[in-house]
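Q: what sequence does this backbone want?
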């Protein structure tokens, strides 16, 4: 790997210089043994770096490195890990190479406006980004030929501070590029690669950065280059700007610029997978490339459709980008003729049949320009078909050609390492290598082998760790912002590890109804303040900087948390991100989710929790409709939406469940102080959700469902001779289960 900035790490002894390769490949982040290599250099430096090996290796005194390079035990471990890493990177014998041997050189280009990979790369706002990040990690593990494109947001997403009045203050902090696991992409002459976005006038230029996600390169676009006008430099400065024109320019850069960058890097034969509509212009650029080669527009469109997958998540019309025609004209004037079509034909590609005058709808365009489209859960598939049936006149219900692939989470990323060790210990002897077949439900049946008290004690350990981390964060917040006693309570200083703990953490979009549990404050107070069976709630999440509604919800919660009547049993944790998410989904007892159905396209944080034995208490929406089986958590809110008093009814269902089921089960201890009924439910949650809602199941589903036709669309000869052609032993088949359920309904 000659493209790493090795000259900046000359203080690392040659014997362990592979640490630089490791630090610049996020593979370390989902392989706990690799993480320990950094941690062992010096625990304090590891902590100071906020678990960021690039930053740590830059800052660490040479003496620690020297000591490690002379320590036989360290070197032994180092050699084993480096061997494993290099073998992984060789990419032989992967699932994909065995399933699709001798395939033509077709790769998949994945486009997304955000990626949630690690907190050292703050290029995400929420679930959409983590889905993309988990998709890449899993594609890497399975050996898929994939490249990915996104943005290098120079300011990242906002950092959040909540002031004593409960108001969210956004703090923008430029991303420290030198301390992030990213490197500049250079051209053949060794200069920074700069690419002009084709046919867009006035011109926009992009520089390119690279993130190594295991075997998969992720290219990040950066418009902060000297040859750009000042306005253009700002295009990639932050996520989802509210300014419509700037947003259009972002999407032009992501789609058209991103496609051009792949081209410049010599990546030509690719199918495209779009994560949501923001990068849809990539399909436009693929059409233009073909027209440039002399293919007529309709044939080019046909080719592009056949080789494009579009995943849409947004179940409300207002959530889709629509750009007015005059704005489109401003940027695409020279693009129309390059496609060989006129303005009218171009604008028709983005027309929403029910509001034709509104402008260019990115989702309508993406649906027209791709032959394969899907929602992200069974329920979301139904909602999406209903929403977009107008694009296929004469179709309705199941005949609308939109499919679904239910989301999943990357198990090695979200399963706590100690929890993994415990699973290893009991599953491993019977099913060695279980982690590499973790989408097989049969493997997870062995969770029952774990003795109740071991699972319970480990859970308590993770909970204690969560609470000590939260208190430590609160201590730091106090030293920076001071504030009064009420703020200390609201920040979580009084959290108690022996109290039943509920977690609620996600973006503060209004549809997620973070305030729902305060619908009847008196009843909630009684639940939290029960002297024998107390309950505490930890909230976390950011409101979008332009969303005052979301900020008011946050403020309401924070003010409750400040009130002594709630007894210090409500905490709001600032600056929710990947790291806080890890602690929460490992350490709380119950994961609460109560969006307004059918707004939750899937939701993934509950999957992360379930994997670690945290029990879901969730409304029946998104993934939980598929996940809930009556024994692995709690469900409510099965009614139709829109009725008056919905909040009241849903809140009351939560209170009932807490009072009658959750709290009694949690505090029902045997003589050994283990709540065996609760632990049974934890095991059921792990077993039933772990395999199904894994990114492995999800990515395999995308591949087996779409890859053959993508290959065919690209003109490749295709024969699938691998193991997947054999009958599967899988007990659970998302397709057949869906059919039976829908037919039964
Ligand atoms: C998983 C995750 C999300 C998505 O959570 P949802 O419950 O799907 O909204 C958002 N933010 C972070 C930091 C996450 O880890």
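A:
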């Amino acid at each position: 790997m000659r493209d790493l900035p090795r000259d900046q790490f000359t203080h690392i002894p040659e014997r362990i210089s592979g640490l630089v390769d490791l630090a610049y490949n996020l593979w370390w982040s989902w392989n706990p043994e690799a993480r320990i290599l950094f941690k062992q250099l010096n625990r304090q430096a590891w902590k100071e770096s906020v678990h960021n090996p690039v930053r740590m290796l830059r800052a660490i005194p040479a003496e620690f490195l020297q000591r490690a390079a002379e320590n036989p035990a360290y070197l032994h471990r180092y050699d084993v890990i480096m061997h494993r890493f290099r073998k992984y990177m060789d990419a032989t014998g992967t699932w994909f190479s065995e399933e699709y041997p001798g395939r033509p050189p077709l790769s998949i280009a994945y486009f997304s406006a955000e990626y949630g990979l690690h907190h050292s790369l703050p290029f995400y706002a929420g679930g959409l980004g983590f889905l993309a990040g988990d998709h890449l990690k899993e594609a890497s593990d399975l050996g898929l030929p994939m490249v990915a494109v996104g943005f290098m947001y120079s300011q990242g997403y906002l950092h959040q501070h909540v002031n004593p009045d409960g108001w969210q203050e956004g703090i923008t902090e430029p991303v420290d590029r030198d301390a992030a696991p990213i490197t500049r992409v250079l051209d053949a002459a060794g200069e920074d690669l700069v690419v002009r976005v084709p046919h867009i006038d006035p011109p926009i230029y992009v520089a390119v950065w690279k993130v190594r996600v295991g075997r998969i390169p992720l290219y990040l676009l950066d418009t902060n280059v000297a040859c750009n006008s000042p306005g253009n430099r700002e295009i990639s400065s932050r996520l989802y700007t509210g300014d419509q024109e700037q947003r259009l320019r972002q999407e032009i850069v992501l789609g058209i610029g991103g496609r051009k960058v792949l081209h410049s890097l010599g990546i030509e034969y690719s199918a495209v997978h779009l994560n949501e509509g923001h990068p849809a212009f990539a399909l436009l650029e693929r059409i233009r490339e073909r027209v440039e080669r002399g293919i007529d527009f309709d044939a080019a469109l046909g080719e592009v459709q056949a080789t494009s997958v579009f995943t849409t998540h947004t179940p409300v019309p207002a959530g889709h980008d629509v750009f007015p025609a005059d704005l489109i004209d401003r940027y695409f004037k020279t693009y129309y003729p390059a496609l060989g079509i006129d303005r009218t034909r171009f604008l028709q590609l983005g027309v929403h049949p029910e509001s034709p005058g509104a402008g260019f709808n990115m989702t309508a365009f993406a649906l027209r320009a791709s032959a394969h489209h899907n929602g992200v859960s069974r329920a979301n598939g139904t909602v999406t078909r209903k929403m977009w049936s107008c694009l296929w006149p004469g179709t309705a219900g199941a005949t609308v050609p939109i499919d679904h692939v239910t989301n999943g989470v990357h198990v090695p990323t979200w399963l706590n390492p100690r929890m993994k060790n415990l699973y290893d210990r009991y599953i491993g002897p019977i099913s060695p290598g279980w982690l590499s077949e973790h989408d097989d439900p049969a493997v997870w049946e062995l969770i029952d082998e774990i003795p109740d008290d071991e699972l319970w004690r480990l859970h308590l350990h993770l909970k204690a760790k969560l609470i000590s981390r939260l208190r430590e964060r609160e201590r730091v917040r106090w030293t920076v912002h001071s504030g009064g006693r009420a703020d200390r309570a609201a920040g979580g200083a009084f959290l108690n590890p022996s109290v039943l703990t509920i977690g609620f953490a996600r973006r503060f979009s209004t549809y997620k109804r973070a305030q729902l549990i305060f619908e009847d404050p008196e009843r909630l107070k009684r639940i939290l303040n029960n002297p024998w069976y107390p309950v505490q709630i930890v909230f976390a999440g950011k409101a979008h900087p332009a969303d005052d509604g979301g900020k008011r919800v946050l403020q309401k919660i924070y003010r409750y948390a400040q009130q002594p009547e709630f007894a210090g049993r409500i905490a709001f944790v600032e600056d929710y991100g990947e790291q806080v998410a890890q602690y929460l989904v490992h350490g709380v007892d119950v994961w609460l989710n109560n969006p307004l159905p059918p707004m939750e396209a899937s939701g993934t944080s509950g999957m992360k929790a379930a994997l670690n034995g945290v029990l879901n208490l969730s409304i029946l929406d998104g993934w939980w409709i598929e996940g809930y089986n009556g024994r692995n958590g709690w469900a409510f809110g099965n009614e139709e939406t829109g009725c008056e008093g919905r909040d009241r009814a849903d809140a009351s269902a939560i209170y009932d469940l807490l009072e009658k089921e959750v709290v009694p089960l949690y505090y029902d201890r045997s003589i050994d102080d283990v709540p065996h009924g609760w632990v049974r439910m934890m095991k059921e949650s792990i077993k039933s959700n772990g395999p199904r809602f894994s990114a492995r199941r999800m990515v395999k589903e995308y591949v087996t469902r779409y890859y053959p036709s993508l290959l065919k669309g690209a003109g490749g000869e295709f024969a699938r001779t691998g193991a997947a052609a054999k009958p599967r032993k899988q007990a659970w088949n998302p397709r057949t289960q869906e059919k039976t359920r829908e037919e039964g309904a």
